[in-house]
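All the exercises in this workshop are built on plain-text protein records. Sequence and backbone structure share a record, each on its own labelled line. The question running through the whole workshop is how a given chain folds. The record below serves as our worked example for the rest of this section.
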Amino acid sequence: MEHRFYNLTPRQQRVFQLKMVGAFLALNLVVALLLMLAQLPFLILFTFALSLSVFAPFGDVPSGVKSGSLKYYSVLLIGEKVRNNRLVLHSGSLFDYYFVLNKKHSVRERKRQVFSAYVDGLLNLISQYENKQPTQITIKATSYILNPRTANKLGLSPTSPDMLQRFILYFNYINLTCALSLLNKKITWPNIQKTVSYEGTLDTLIEKKKDLLLMKRRLQ
């Protein structure tokens, strides 16, 4: 697996991002004109926010990686910078799905690809910290791929998202819809109410390295 965006030259990356900015502005201009004609100007800000949630990852993720606030542990597993002994993991964004998923693969192959990348990312995370125990680091992750049974095997316990997390999930509803639709090759609406976050300690995850290696072999 490879992340095609980072295979582009810096100039090609900038050109792509400028095209995304142009598409974002053009879309919002057209929508704003239509809403003005329909005498619904109060919806302009709302549609702007929704479209921003879709386009933002295409700029935020690369810039976050460049600044060091985000780190790829695999092509589809991103970690925020550790703060207060807490590491937040994300199972890729719409930006990553767009550049990683193979258009020729079936839905089953795509899901296998995403889960495989998740396992690879956790193994890379372990490799970074296994010689630094005890780490005293807490892990928090939200994923549509990792189910509670598998998470439990890795020492991660399901938790309900707090109010702020739920607000962010609802704000990114269209973004999540686009990502899941890319994964499933059809329109897929996320069920925010059933979204589960997982928490555990990095030290416990390190102890589960053999289980992750076994999962990796099975996926291969």
User: Anything to note?
Assistant: The radius of gyration is 19 Å. The CA atoms of residues 126 and 206 lie 6 Å apart. The beta strands are 70-74, 77-80, 86-90, 138-142, 157-159, 197-201.
